[in-house]
Amino acid sequence: MITGNIEQLSKSQIELPVAIYEVLSAIKDLDFSVHPDGQKEVNGVIFKTFTANTDLPEKRTPETHKDFIDVQFVISGNELAEFGCLGDIKPNMEKPEDDNYFYDRPDLDLNQMTLKDGDFIIFFPWDIHSPLCHKSVISRVRKIVAKVPVASL
């Protein structure tokens, strides 16, 4: 997992794989006042822009992916993202057709990080994650999730 803020993207370039840096650069160049919600694919990367409400962590299901890296960028709002090490934990539900693998929360030891406007977080296949959480107050979050093929690295 790697995290940062889009305003310091040039400083983060040294630690980011080229494909991920290019995705974040494309996101940084967007004008969010006119950028619509929806999904589009560019050079094999799927960009999903949407607005959602956060929920309590116990109501969110932690997940991983095998074929894609999640590059999550908060356009506006605040969310709590939970994350942890996959290790030897096996999913309790698999949806390989969607590249989604879900986990029982009691089996996990998850950390938490608050993300706000301009923050990004990158989840690799070995990072269990549960975004769009809150501790007590629902927040409306607008974000982009870019699905970067692992093969592009």
Automatic annotation (TrEMBL):
InterPro entries: NanQ/TabA/YiaL, NanQ/TabA/YiaL_sf. Pfam families: DUF386 (PF04074). It comes from the Bacteria. GO terms for cellular component: cytosol. NCBIfam families: YhcH/YjgK/YiaL family protein. This is DUF386 domain-containing protein. It comes from Jejubacter calystegiae.
